[in-house]
Design a protein that fits this description.
By secondary structure, the protein is mostly helical. The chain has a single domain, classed as Homeodomain-like (Arc Repressor Mutant, subunit A, Orthogonal Bundle), CATH 1.10.10. Helix 1 crosses helix 3, helix 7 packs across helix 9 and helix 7 packs across helix 10. The longest helix has 23 residues. It is globular and about 45 Å long.
Amino acid sequence: MPERPCVLPQEMTSAYSGGLDMEDAYIQQCELLSALDRLTNLQFHMIQEFTERVSRVRHGESRLATQVANYVQKHLSEPISTEALAKELYMGRTHLSARFHKETGETLAAFITKEKMEEAKRLLRYADKPITAIGNYLGYSSSGHFGNVFRKTVGLTPSEYREKHGK
């Protein structure tokens, strides 16, 4: 039987043409999970994130902001530098930082930290992995550094967050 061609719904084609790239960290997250209910929850969050991204593209989020968001999502498991991001987008670091801040009202460093902390919160709620493994996965050089950034951003330590919001 011949394969049927893949036809994307209108929402998806407009998202892709707007610079949306769904090759993000969901496969890596999936590898961190061991229970079926956790995988189902991850699937829900993946669909929710895709929907939010489509909405941002459709409501005029700048192409630069979309490109930055896609890059950050693809590289959540690594330390992300402004230099590497600028190189990927064929821009100077200073120009990228200034333009991103002008278009979004947020610094690149703050955006990257926010995205990593959102991912950390998801993993703390749904993954069975130790906090140290989650910090390592997100590209932090030590569990202490991860804990400090998490506490500063979220207002709780990773352990407190997991206890309050986890299983």
